[in-house]
Amino acid sequence: MSIESQKPEEVSFPLWVDQPDALGRVEARLAGGDISQVDAQHLRQFIEQGFVIIPGAISPEHVDLINRDIDTMHNTPERYLVKYQGKQFGHPASADLPDKCRILDMYVPSEASLAAILADPITHFLSLVYGQPPLAFQTLTFLRGSEQSMHKDISYVVVDKPLTLTASWIALEDVKPGSGELMYYPGSHRDKVFLFKDKHIAWNPNRDGKVTHVEYLDFIKRAALLRGVNEAYFLPKKGDALIWHANLAHGGAPITDSASSRRSLVTHYCAYEGAPNYASVSPARFFKRPFGQGYYSSKRYDLAETAHPERPWLMG
Ligand SMILES: O=C(O)CCC(=O)C(=O)O
Ligand SMILES: [Fe+2]
Which ligand 1 atom sits nearest the alpha carbon of residue 157? Predict the structure, then answer.
């Protein structure tokens, strides 16, 4: 599919922040006293650039509690899930986890993680974007840089309304250059959405194959090149957060300092009334629990009211 060939009606942007009058609405709400100066500044950045940086979203002391949970989770391995090399899942067997592993949905067993992904600065901003509270439905905890190519999460993370997806990236330590820092193309949320087989927003490996995936990655780079935009790098302090738009291209920079860690917590959200894909696959297991000013659900953990408080965690 060429960059020029997409018909606009093929992709729906339901959120107000993606409508042509979005900046005007921010100014009107600010003038009406409905939002603060900081809210307006955050919304403008999100509307124009496709991301917002919230410095100090989580306090360093709070981040220490999350790190402590990571460092001690092998003591209660049945509570935590870790993904290695693409598809395998397991419980953390030792304190030394493989570099490329990701801890899954850590907000269920770790209350410190839950309090971070639904911390007020994050839920407040997302509530402005959604016009209702956010639903956090998936996290990946990284110990090191992912070195992932520039991509858009809508291609992999499926929700009922794809362009309502958002994600937060919370720094669990100060990020140093060379550690595989998060990178992104500012403004790429306004680039065309790649459609697999000319109609699907999400990549299906069986249907679309790997060659098409390479074309997709190339499409994203060419779109940025066409606009003359280079990669921006996120070098946050511990506790800073970056929230990205569904259609913002991002990835992990190459790791040039192999000794450096890069702990981070990535969370995907949709609106409270929205639904991640797994809700339609197993509706009987889709539960939304309130926390702070938001909600959470999980595909991998049993969040039914009847789940046993000591071992509610693993399903099936
Ligand atoms: O943190 C990174 O290196 C990229 C993570 C990412 O793209 C994601 O989790 O969606
Ligand atoms: Fe991503």
Answer: 10
